[in-house]
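User: Hello, can you help with two protein structures?

Assistant: Certainly.
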Amino acid sequence: MKQPFILLLACLWWLSLNAQETREGVPSIFLECPWGCDMDFLRQEMTYVNFVRDRAISDVFIQQTYLETGGGGLQSTLNFFGNKGFKGRNDTLVYVIPPNASESVHREMLKTNLERGLVPYLLHSEIADRITFSIKPMEVNENTTQKAPTLDPWNYWTLSINGNINASGQEVAKNLSVYGGFNARRITNAVKSQLYVSGDYNHSKFDFGDGEIEEYNQGGYSVGGSQIYSLTPHWSAGVFANAGQSLYNNTQLGVLCLPAVEYDIFPYSEATRRLLTIQYAIGARYNQYFDKTIYFKDSELLGVQNLGAYYSQVLTWGSFNAGVAYGNYLHDWDLNEINFSTGIELNLFKGFNLSLWGNYSVVHNQIELPGNGATKEEALLAIRQLQTGYNYYMWCGVSYTFGSIYSNVVNPRFDNRLF
C-alpha cells in the first residue's frame, strides 16, 4: 500500500524541481479573452513581459471585447487597466479583424495591438532603455495625394453561403443530417439590413435485427429579413419578418411580421462596455398547421406583442448580463410567455473564478401543439414539441488556481497525447 504513495511523492518532488521562468524588471500582465487566445504564441513572442494567471496580481490587466462589423468581420477592443505602480493609467485600442481571417491573422493582429498598447507601461519600466521605435514612412506621390475616395462596388452588402453534411452510424442506428443557408446583410451607421434563407433535413434509421425497421424524418426551412434604422444615439426602430416550416412545432407554414422600437439607456457607442436596452414589438402571425391543434385550428391569423429589457456590463472583475422578455397573443392575454435569462462571470478574489448561466421560461402560449399529441418515439427523438408549463437551463462552474503566479513558459510536449 505504501508503494503508490511513495511513487506519487516522488513524482510531485520531481515536478517541483522544474521552477517557473520569471523575468525580472518587466511588467506582469493578465489578458482576458472572451473567445480564448493563443496564449502559447503570445508567451513565445512577447518575452519582455511576465504573463500571470490572475488579474489581481498583474501590473496591467487587459480585457478584450468584440462587436461584429457590417462586413462580417470583428471589431476588437482592448481595454488596458493599470494596477499597482500603474494605477490610473488606462487606455483603449480598437482594431478590425477582416471576415474569414485565419487563426494566424487573428493572433498576429492581437499581438501587434497588445504591443502598441503596452508601450506606455513599458516606458515606465526597467526595460525602457531597451525600447526602440519603428514607424513606416508614408508613401507620397501624385497618385496618393490626389486619390479619390474608395468606391465600394458592393455598396456595403456582405453575402455568405454555408452548408454541412453530417453522417454517423453503427449496426443498429444510422443518422444523416444536411444543412444549408444563405445570408446577406448591409450594415452602416444609419441602417442595418439583413436577408437570410436556411433549411435542414434529418433522417434517422433503426434496424433492431428482427425485421423491424424504424425510420424518422425531420426538417424545415426559414426565410426572413430585417431593416433597422438608427434614429438617435439612444433610439432605434426596425421591422422584422420571417416565414418558415417546422415539423417540431407542427407548423407547415408560419409567417411573422413585427415592427419594433428599442431604447438604450446608455449611448450605443458604449455597447462594448455596457448596454441597457428596452424593446417593444407589435405585429401579426399567421400559422398553417400539419395537424389540427389542441384548439381545433388548421390555420389562424393572430396579433402578437413583445416587451423586453436587456442589461450587459463588462467590468474589470468580470461581466454580467440579464434579460427579461414578455410576449402574448392579443386576442387572449392568457396565452403568454415570460422568459428570464442571466449570465455572470466573476473573478471574486485572487485565483477564484465563478461562472453562472441560466434561463427560465414560464410557458402558456403553445397554440401550435397537435391535438393528437406526440408518440413516445417522437418525444425521445425530439421530433415533436411536448406540452409544458415551463422550461429552464442552468449551468454553474467554479475554478480556483493557486501556486506560482507566472505563466511564461511554453512546453508543447504531449499536449496532444493519444492515450
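That covers the first. Now for the second protein you mentioned:
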Amino acid sequence: MNRNLLLLWCAHSTFFFGSSVYTLVLTLLSLQYGESAVGAGAMLFTSFIPYLFVGVIAGAIVDRVNRKRLMVICESTRVLLTISIPIALSLDALTVPHILLVSILMTCLRSFSAPATQSSVPLLIDDKKNLTKVHAYIGSTSNLGLMLGPSLGGVLLLFDMQVAELLYITTASNMISLILISFIRFPSNNVDSTETNESVEMKKTSIWQDTWKGLHFMTFGNKEIAIMMILYSTQFLVGGAVVHLGISKLLVEADLGGQKMLGFIMSTASGTAFLSSLWLAQQKVLQPAKWVFTGYACRGVAILLLVFATEIWMIGIAAVIMGFVISITGVPLTTIIQRKTPNHMLGKVSAVRSSVGFVSDASSYLFVGALLTSLSLQLTFLVLSLYIFVSVFFLYMLWKRMRFEIGEAAQDISK
C-alpha cells in the first residue's frame, strides 16, 4: 500500500470513528426529542432527506472537480457543524431545529465526501487486482473506529456526560482527518488532472446529462451492478433502524440497561466487523456476489434471533452476526462495482450507491418505526426477518438467471 493510499486509509478510518460517535449522539438525541419510535424515526429520516436531491448529482460533480480539495472543504465544514451542538448546549440554546439543521447539512457534506473518498481508492491503488484486499483492510479499521466510538461514548454516558458533549470527540476526529487528507497527492494520470477522451467528453455535457449517464450505466449498462444495487437497497430498507430503534427498544423493555447499553451493542457489531474484515483480507474471494447474498441472508438470521432475545448475551450474538455481515457484504459489493466501472464513471457510480444506501437506510427509520408502533417488538423482528429472506432469495434467483443468460450468450459468440 503506497503512501497516498495509506493517508486516505487513515483519514477514512479516523472519520468513521468520529462518525460513529455522531451517529450515536444523533440517535439518542432523536429518541430524547422525538418522544416516540415514530417521532425518532421521523427525525432521523429528515436528516437524510438531502440524499434525495443532491446525492446522485454529487457524483457528477465529484468526477469534474479536484477530489482532494472537495474532501478538505467537507471536513473543514464538518468541524464547524459538529462543535456547534455542544456549544449550543452549554449556552442552554440547543433546539430541535438546530439539531435537524446540523444533521441535514452533515448529510449534504457526506453526499459529496463519500463518493469522493470511494472513487479515490482505484485512482490511488497500484494494481486493481488488489481492490478486495485493500477494501478489506480499509473496512477493518473503519469498523474498528465504529467499535471504539460507541464504546467510548457509552462509557462517558455512564459517567453522566451530556449526550451532545460527545460531539467534541467527533470534532477532534474530523480535524485529524482533515490534516491527513491535506497530505494526499493524487497521481498525475487520474481523471482530475488529465485530459482523457472520457474527461474531455464529460466537460462537453451538462451535470444533468452526466448524472443521467451514471444512472443509465448502473441500471441498463451493467445488469450485474443493477441487481446488486437492488439487493443493496432492499437490505438497507431494514438497515440501521433495527439497531437504533429496534434493539434500543428491546434493551428498555427487557430492562437490560436501557439506551445506555446501545453504544456497547453497536460496538460489538463493529468489533466483529473489524475482525472479520481482517480475516476476509486473507481470503481469495473468487465469487464476490455469492458472499454478498450469503451475508444478507445471515442478517435475516440475526434479526430472527432477536425475536427470542431476553438476555443481553442473546442480543450480543445477534450483534456479532450483524457485524460479520457488514464485512462479507460491503467489501465484495464494493469490489464488484469498482471492477466493472471505468475510472471516469467512478464518482457518479459511487454517489448513486451512497445515495441509494442512505435513502434506503433513512426510509428504514420510518418503516421500522411504524412497525414498532403498530406491532409488538417480537412480531416486528419476525416480519423484518421474513422480508430479508424472501427478498434475498428472489434476487439471488434473478442473479443466477442473468449469469446463465450471459453464459449462453458467450457460448453463442464463441461458436
